[in-house]
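Researcher: Structure for this, please.
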Amino acid sequence: MQRRVEEEGVAGRRCGGIQLLSEAALASGDMWSADEIAELCCLHYRTRLPKQGKPDPSREWTSLAAVVKVESLGSPGTPQVTKEVVAMGTGTKCIGQNKMRKTGDVLNDSHAEIVAKRSFQRYLLHQMWLAASHQQCSIFIPGTETGKWKLKPNVIFVFFSSHTPCGDASIIPMSEPVSQLCKPATGAGAVGQLAEYRSNHDHLGPEDERKSEKMAGDYKIKRMKTDNGYFSIITEDLAVQQGSVKREDDTNPESCEGSVERQTANKETTLGRPKVADVYRTGAKCVPGELSDARIPGLGYHCVGLLRVKPGRGDRTCSMSCSDKLARWNVLGCQGALLMHFLQYPLYLSAIIVGKCPYNQEVMRRAIIERTLFQGPVRKMLISGNSHFQNMALWSVEKRCQHISCLPAGFVTQEVKLLQSDLQFEHSHRAIQEAQTNSKTKLVPSSAAISWSAVPEQPLDVTSDGFRQGTTKKMIGSHQSRSKICKVELFHAFQKLVMSISQEDLPDTLRKL
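Model: Predicted structure, token format:
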């Protein structure tokens, strides 16, 4: 995206004789807002998706993600911007490694963000077919190389997620005013925060909980007594997490020693400022063979910046967390390796919007952008605290990111715009919990995942446990059991695209020798 802006200009471009808003102007967000995008996605979910696959609001919840096309149709003087949902996904599940298949006919990861992205790839394949068929309604225009295409300069894509991505982006500091630090949380907000905390903590298995309790004995915990009970804080050895949050009252970021004394000395100056009490837990587990979470109660529970895999019920998964995948898309694009054969430049998201839920801008930036940049705040977060554990984390991240500069032409780490909306998805865990405050029914995540793409043939796809909903054991392996966005189906769509184009019009990488 950055390279295209430099080559084609920022002030404005001409398409069909009409001067249009530039990609940079569209991406700035001046012509759209986070709430507008979120409202459009929620409306699409409510009106365009059938009841099939949606959760039972009396006992189930789900997550929502979507890709929105933002297009400029007017001139800079009289701008007209259209917004259209082109891909959508719901889901919270992920199959274990024992259920994965080499045939590629099962959907391994059914988290909403991943379903939406794969649905988006299906949309892109259809748009490429339109372009190759010389139909003007496509989002692609010819590139400078034979068989190569590029995105129209007046089109960008915005990604919406009803919740913070699992993994590193979900390790968010819990803070409240110091004057209320030792008071019990009350009210609807506290109920929602507690519910969110428990929903994340429920992903931990018995083994993880035992390790957490065992490691807790190695650290000193100060228990502050109040009229309403006790509130526990760690007084030393904050290790990794001490450096991952912004400390309002710590004047020396290179050391965590004497933090309690400084807190006491600065009590008057920090009164009313947010003070970190804990962090939200993520169920995503550290990649096997690398550093692990300390699981210290409170701030030191998680180690930030690490690669993680999604949790499984008994059977470990091989699917990376949504935070890790979004960070990857921010460098490699969303088009996938197959479609890249036809593209002159990778297709990047211009903005990522998160709905109303626990959210932290600095944490989101760390997880999606800075972990791949490996500079500035990331380095400081990892090395602050002077602990051997953090130095190991620094070495691990540096080892993973040392080749980030050796990317092919056109690939860069994007400064994607990160925003939050104040709108809450109606079937989110928090929304369902708030609506069922008087119910004793235990809320569970929906087992179904919905895929929707803006394509003419079979736009809707509902799956469960990686296969189309209703699939029996005897049907597994048949065409009827496959999701339209599983690997083999997307490959077949790619094959169909290649076969529809004459040899002389194909890119060099796809021509027969």
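Researcher: Any notable elements?
Model: The chain has 15 helices and 22 strands. The CA atoms of residues 222 and 233 lie 5 Å apart.
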